[in-house]
């Protein structure tokens, strides 16, 4: 049985409050790609991806494993050496911001400039 749950919720379902939020990032082919991991008080984990989809997992460990399988890294676990080949400095990696998920979607992917050497 998969650890991933149905990624749709009925409109009548009450969503459990968010307990923690973490931003994850990857950089394939000079594209900065973000994902947001939220763990709900119920223990369910949700990953908001760059396409604006919310993927629902039965727990934080399952969601983290899926993100790592997709080569994402937790932003709070990165250091300067981890992002050296990406171009921007670690301090310049700022997660998307917005009042709702719709405002985040256009910010979830961006092309990086290749540094001249």
Strand percentage: 25-35%
How many E-type strands? 6
User: How far is it from the N-terminal to the C-terminal residue, by CA?
Assistant: 49 Å
Q: Helicity range of the residues? A: 10-25%
Order of helices and strands: EEEEHEHHE
Written overview of the protein:
With 117 residues, this protein is α+β, with helices and mostly antiparallel strands. It is built from 3 helices and 6 strands. Strand 1 and strand 2 form a beta hairpin. Residues 6-12 have low confidence and may be disordered.
Topology, element by element:
Elements: E1 18-26, E2 31-40, E3 45-48, E4 54-57, H1 60-69, E5 73-74, H2 80-83, H3 101-104, E6 109-111
Antiparallel strand pairs: 1-2, 1-5, 2-3, 2-6, 3-4
Short description:
The protein contains three helices and six strands, in the order E-E-E-E-H-E-H-H-E.
Key terms:
117 residues, alpha+beta, 27% strand
